[in-house]
Amino acid sequence: MPFLEATGHKLGAKKEGVGGPADYHALGAMEVICNNMAKMLQMALQSPDWLQGHYLVVWYEDLVGHSVKTLRRVYDFVGLLVSPEMEQFALNMTSGSVSSSKPFMVSARNATQAANAWRTALIFQQIKQVEEFCYQPMAVLGYEQVNSPEEVKDLRRPSFGSPVSERGSWET
Q: What one-character-per-residue DSSP string does 48-65 give?
């Protein structure tokens, strides 16, 4: 599993790391995504008047863990009513019994299991590297860092510091 060994960020010369050559495409993408997410969150937290009331932040964990409630909140935000058929569709798509290693597979599957797939698919060093690159947005969003490989594998431990119900929503 590549993408180890990238100290100092700004991906300079290739280095040989613990896991072999670093996957510089993955590292570069991770750095861009995390930097853009940090900028987006900064704008959300200090939103100008023209942006207020025009966006809603939805956590993926809320969507998969409370699909109907989250769907209703999104529909309400845009001024629409959710049909019973759409609620059933959301429930079916997030609570199926199918598990897949394909992250963009569109079919009924256990979405909670999919949301936690990183815990079994990545090694501890990779997770720590993601935390290093994405520290700022992860902290703002309330994700807790992991301290050991055992903590990662304990699927009873949430990745959020506070329960979904306590996080509230970002409607501005």
A: -TTTTTS-EE--HHHHHH
- Look-up: residue for tokens 């969150």? 41
Cα separations in angstroms, 10 against 20, 131, 145: 19, 16, 22
Alpha-helical regions (H) of the chain: 24-45, 60-65, 67-77, 84-94, 111-115, 118-121, 124-133, 135-141, 149-153, 164-167
Q: Are strands 16-17 and 56-57 parallel, antiparallel or unpaired?
A: unpaired
| Nearest residue to 115 (alpha-carbon basis) of 51, 55, 66 | 66
Contact 131, 138 (CB under 8 A): yes
Look up the pTM and report it: 0.62
Distance of CA 8 to the CA centre of its chain: 24
State the pairing for strand pair 56-57/170-171: antiparallel
pLDDT digits (tens, 9 = 90+) for 61-119: 888 888 899 999 999 999 999 999 999 988 888 876 655 555 555 555 667 777 778 88
